[in-house]
Amino acid sequence: MKNKYLIIFLLNFFMIKNDGFTDTIVMNPNKTTPLSAVYMLAQTNSVDIEVTIKGKTSEMDIKHTFLAGTIKDIPIHGLYPNRTNTVILKISNKEITNYLITKAIEFDKGKVSVDLLPTPDPKNQDLYFANHIRYNLPEDDRNFLIAYDRKGDIRYLNYNHKLHYIFQTNQQILIKNNNGIFDLLNNRLVNYKGTYNLHTHHDSLVLNKKHVVLANSKWGVEDRIVELNDKGEILRDLSFGSLFRDIITTPQEKIIMNQIIFDESNIYTKNGKRKEIDWAHANSLVYDEEQDIMYFSLRQQGVLAVDYSSWKLIWWMTDNTLDTIHEGVPNRGLNFLDLKSLEPYRVKGDAVRNGPKNQHSLFLFKNGNLGMFDNVGDAEKSDKGSRYIEYKITGFQNNWQAKLVREYKDDKLYSQITSDIDVVGNNHENLLITWGIPEHIREINQQNKVIFDLSVKQDNFLYRVDKMPLYPYQNRNKKYSLDANDKNKTPY
To answer: ∠273-238-343 over CA atoms, to 5°?
Structure first.
């Protein structure tokens, strides 16, 4: 049987080469994407080329048309593992069929329990790009990006070790992570590390061609925000600690503050050695260009609103029961709630007794509401589910108020760490919620009804999930899902 497919492959290779369209097909060109390939054209395409990756059923086909004059090496994504995949190129009036054989992979398909979604786009359906993490592996080898279709089948796999989230341009779907920006074949397009070898983590966004990233300082973990250009050169370097040192001035409170904040003004040492302390753990940022406000999630301390240009604190919010528990923090239990000088900046109302704890994935809506994934504490296990929450925040200093306007949770789904939210649907009407530890993905509508439910257990946990196609939509007016962690400029 293998010889049969080899003969078919060679016949097609000969046909393509004689027509002058391509020289070769390369499977997994960078050795990190085993369910992808590339057609290497002899020259940029002079005519439109339509590529079809056949699905197990016709509704699961993936199609994309590369317009004339736009491509030389054609990426092929959407192959199934352990299968002879049919890939069809339509060039002018000719159809060229190729059979690409993929090997088995170590990952299991997902389990779909609810699917009330509309009929998928027959040309280019959305997939669920899930960033899995395995802590039993070394840090540089523990990340895997797996894209599941609505049947739970795996259609894309990436062994890039630092995966964050997926976003789109007019030309292609891209990956952004703490090393830079990559295409789906793992070719690096932008280098964030540059000559500084920054330890960046979690999130970044682009503002006026500048890359704003969350990073470590020499003294703390994820307690710094850095602006870079495309070359990875630092344009601006800001410390979260400075936001609070400008406010807290009394000697008594400085003593408490220096048991919470560890930065260049309070370097922690143990046994004569400097040690980074995870006192902030900034894990999400979102920017409102109209008001020049940057919102941050500091996992250990709460949610902040900051005047970005002046780098001044506007407000902060957290639940009364916040208890900063994290390995390596020398003074467990101390947090911003113990700093009385911050009271005028604290958001009250529903945020006091029904506020976030150890939250992730801020999302700023057009009406000004602020949504997020609330982990609901830092216990290893809990019978209270982690949740989605959304607040309307109003007022001014000494009188900031939060009203909880939406909540969704399932008591069976609790996640101590990670997790994600996005806005999805044809009109951004649905929420995509990811519980990291249970490795569970769910879409709900505006009435909190479950319309899609997918379990993707791979014996690890999820970092985040994005709903995206493998190729840009042919219809330029079609809306992509919005990632909570890639909000450029104003809300949608």
So the answer is: 95
Q: What is the pLDDT of residue 197?
A: 57
Question: With the C-alpha atoms ordered 61, 38, 229, 226, is the resulting torsion angle positive or negative?
Answer: positive
The pLDDT, as a whole number, for residue 360 is 95
Predicted confidence at residue 160, as pLDDT, reads 75
- For residue 482, CA distances in Å to 99, 157, 189, 231 come to 35, 22, 22, 26
Q: Coil, helix or strand for 190?
A: strand
CB 393 within 8 A of CB 316: no
Question: Do 131 and 197 fall within a single domain?
Answer: yes
Q: Are 405 and 446 in contact (CB under 8 A)?
A: no
β-sheet with 143-148: strand ranges across: 154-158, 143-148, 127-133, 461-468
Query: Of 83, 101, 119, at which residue does a domain stop?
Result: 101
254: CATH: 2.120.10.30
Judge if 365 and 441 occupy the same domain.
yes
- Are 407 and 399 in contact by the 8 Å Cβ rule? The answer is no
Task: Spell out, as residue ranges, where the chain has pLDDT lower than 50.
Answer: 1-20, 488-492
Which tokens belong to 372? Answer: 């997020």
Instruction: Using alpha carbons, select from 163, 234, 220 the residue that is nearest to residue 192.
Output: 234
One-letter amino acid identity for 63? K
What's the rounded Cα separation, in Å, for the pair 336 and 322?
9
Q: Which of 172, 190, 169 is nearest to 181 (CA)?
A: 190
Report d(CA 293, CA 305) in Å as an integer. Answer: 6
Q: Are residues 164 and 275 in the same domain?
A: yes
Report the alpha-carbon distance of residue 53 to residue 61 in Å, rounded: 6
CB under 8 Å, gap of 24 or more: what pairs does 294-301 form? 295/362, 295/364, 295/370, 296/225, 296/240, 296/362, 297/359, 297/360, 297/361, 297/362, 297/372, 298/240, 299/358, 299/359, 299/360, 300/324, 300/326, 300/329, 300/335, 300/358, 301/260, 301/335, 301/336
Q: What is the pLDDT of residue 196?
A: 55
Q: How many residues does the chain have?
A: 492
Tokens describing residue 346: 């604290």
> Are the CB atoms for 252 and 246 separated by under 8 Å?
no
Q: Does 47 share its domain with 152?
A: no
Question: What local confidence, expressed as pLDDT, does residue 157 receive?
Answer: 96
pLDDT of residue 19: 47
Q: What pLDDT does residue 32 have?
A: 94
